[in-house]
Amino acid sequence: MKYQFMEQQRRYHRVEKMARVLEVSRSGYYAWRTREASKRARQDRALVTEIRSIQEKVAKYRYGSPRVTKELRRRGHNVGRKRVARLMRANGLNARPRKKFRVTTMSGHKHKAAANVVNREFRPQRPNQVWASDATYVATAEGWLYLFVIMDLYSRRVVGWAMSKSLGTTTLLRALWMAVARRGAPEGLVFHSDRGVQYASTRFRNVLRKKRFIQSMSRKGNCWDNACVESFFKSLKSELIGTTIYESREAATQAVFEYIEVFYNRIRLHSTLGYLSPAEYEEERAQEVA
């Protein structure tokens, strides 16, 4: 322990002085430095290399120690979270700091709100039973870019999304058409959202009615009623956007595309899904719900 302390402090104090104060020999310290590293130290170095690979090539510094630990175990490393957290902290491999954000919902309209059919029951038993949707914004040098997403609550997979400089119903419908093209339009599907004017508009409601979907809306001013999509936006903002202002709307759209389609849906480990990605979760349970 004394030699370890000397190694940590050698940039600030002379070795000779520290050896005298700690009552050890300089030769012993230098012998300790040149001694072959212990087995655990070699393992730590190998783990740091693996963690750096996960953060740089897979997670883009979006993972904290719990997800890094799960990914290491998936790769065959029998390692504990505390050890991983220590190595990440000591080697500057922690996730980016999270940034708080706000989402503005235009709910001051005269359209009638739908009942809250979902009522915070966020674990449907089959795909395409409950979709949830919300909107947020991304800053660019060309102005705001608005993002609508539609999530299948069964697997937390984003099945439809669309971006535009307009926060109008047309952009929402583009996201819906993507979801329908990918997943079909099963009669009786519950479509849940907040009370935003786009979701309450006659145009959007007519589409849901024609598809025989059941509309559900959160209670007024209650973000927890749509917590799954809110959680997705929190991850998007902290793991991708942070304080970035994109040079153009095209650059922002490309970044969001890569985050949703490449990382979030197919790679990112979700604690709710037993640390599987949405795509893996659906694949593993495909026979159960067939």
Order of helices and strands: HHHHHHEEEHEHHEHHHH
How large, in whole angstroms, is the Cα Rg?
25 Å
Q: According to CATH, what is the topology of the largest domain?
A: Nucleotidyltransferase, domain 5
Report the mean per-residue pLDDT as an integer: 88
Strand order of the largest sheet: 3-2-1-4-5
Oligomer: single chain
Q: Report the total helices.
A: 13
Instruction: Tell me the helix content.
Output: 40-55%
Provide the CATH top-level class of the largest domain. Answer: Alpha Beta
Q: Extract low-pLDDT stretches.
A: 100-104
- Domain count: the total is 2
Instruction: Work out the number of β strands.
Output: 5
Q: Which percent band covers the strand fraction?
A: 5-15%
The first-to-last residue Cα distance is: 59 Å
Overall outline: elongated
Class computed from helices, strands and strand pairing: alpha/beta
The biggest beta sheet reads: 5 strands, mixed
Reported CATH architecture of the largest domain: 2-Layer Sandwich
What's the CATH H-level homologous superfamily of the largest domain? Ribonuclease H-like superfamily/Ribonuclease H
Overall description:
The chain is of the alpha/beta class. The protein has two domains: 2-90, no CATH class; 130-289, 2-Layer Sandwich (Nucleotidyltransferase, domain 5). 47% of the residues lie in helices and 13% in strands. It is built from 13 helices and five strands. The chain has helices at residues 2-9, 15-22, 26-34, 39-59, 65-74, 81-90, 169-183, 197-200, 202-210, 227-241, 249-264, 278-284, 286-289; strands spanning 130-140, 143-152, 157-164, 190-193, 214-217. The protein has a five-stranded mixed beta sheet with strand order 3-2-1-4-5, sandwiched between helices. The N and C termini lie far apart (59 Å). Mean pLDDT is 88; it is low at 100-104.
